[in-house]
Give the backbone structure.
Amino acid sequence: MVLEVGLGGRYDATNAIEKPLVTAITNIDYDHTEILGKTLKKIGTDKAGIIKSRSVFFTTERRPALLKIFNEICREKRVLFYRVSSLSSGDYQEENKALAGAISRYVGVSDAHITEGIRNARLMCRFEIIQNEKGKPLVILDGAHNRSKIKTTIDNLKKLKFKKLYLIVGISDNKDHISILKQLIPQADHVFFTRFQIKDRKCAHPKDLLAKSRKYLKKSAKTEICLDPESALLRARSKARTQSGAKDVILVAGSFFLAGELRKKWISEEWVLEHRRAFV
């Protein structure tokens, strides 16, 4: 059984498992700072609360200050500590693959099965190309919502060949809007500021996001405010074109809530429930 921590670590519900075989932490960044703390050390210390006595701990974290925290806790609790590295340092997907592979080998999974599992693995709304049909613009869903994840999104964009980027962006009110916007906005030729409509999570108002974004816009970039995300998608699809040599790209980013809401335009909840899988 594999359990994913909901938030942080020290006070997370997964601590009900007192003797896990393995615990692991991926690279740490500024997220949920209103709960976990404003510094990486505070966030790292909270996340390290999942480390349990006489288990084994794996991480892809590289920063010395955070590794020091992990080392001290592992020594105190008599935990074996493995730092996992990948050939593509800084690429979170490659680092996550290396981490999953290291843990799987430790628990006895064969290299052949690890290779097959990684080859077949797919993640919803993590730079997910949801539309790539001939004659239609490329549509990418990405739930990136913090500084490091946005950097990876942009790195992946740079691997694509396209004419114009149409960005649909909505961000939770409690996120660091500036760190997201100052990376994303300069990439776009047309930005649609919108909001998701999840009752349990407040979304930043599109007008506020536009105001914060003005200094980062290209001179030629256009902007629109669409209070309804489906309207934003409809507007983007009507403007994006497929041209000889390259397509325009529509990128939905800033929140898993937004990406998940718009994903239903391609794969309905009814289809997912009927087929018991999230991918067509």
Remarks:
- The chain is about 35% helix and 15% strand.
